[in-house]
Amino acid sequence: MTGYDPQLLATFLAVEQTGSFTRAAARLGLQQPTVSQHIRRLEEQVGRTLVLRDTHSVSLTADGEVMTGFARNILAASEQAAAYFRGSQPRGRLRIGISDDLALTGLPQILRDFRRDNPLVDFDLTVDQSGLLHQRLEGDKLDVFIGKRPSGEERGQLVKRDRLVWVGTPSTKLDLTRPLPLVVYPAPSLSRTEIRRALNRARLPFRSACVCRGVNGLIAAVAAGIGISALAASLVPAQLTPLGPGHRLPELGLIDLVLLTNPRTRRRPAVSALIATVLASGSKSLSAGGA
Length: 291
What we know:
By secondary structure, this protein is an alpha/beta fold.
């Protein structure tokens, strides 16, 4: 009977989540050759190719996609067994901040899974803009933050790297000689900052046609044709359409979805358990309609 080494499975999931052997090595505190060795050993155990890699990209085979589900279940069961035989379960109240656009993803299911496995942990859940949640974390008002981090920052554990894209509707038409109507969050907002930075670089005039506190208001305003906005590519809902090269808008660059912890409370068992649940869920769970 073949059993799969949890360390190899954890390395495999890190590669799946980061899309890179190098970034997986950084997350796990390993050397890149060690990550390659772990993947090779797991493929030998499975008898199938799980990961396709070349000099430019890393992707999963069909068998690799299947293995992600098995790997998460095996690691979760291993953690549950370890917690049981340690004789203690995480308990207390966990203060979690979640970027409100992530409510459109599979993150609620991740929290359900965590609650099922950690029934003694209660939540204080704050859903808001990433900029405001960063401030709450720094002010010791959160234990864990899941959301976007500012461009160029390296703090936090990378869960997913995504492209920020312009969004509108299929009928969106723009006159670049007139101020572009924007639908934005109030400051501090990371996406608002990136939008303004890109338009200023391109020397395109703009105006805030609608300021929305939450993602549902932003989606409604853009869908109503009030203006254009920007979202992470994997978070674009069905009501909106990514705007392509024909609209002649400047590139917005990349945005990171990360998990940040409060240095004062990061060693609490409940915090460690939530981190493990989020990272084991896979980056696809943080996509619109993710499961």
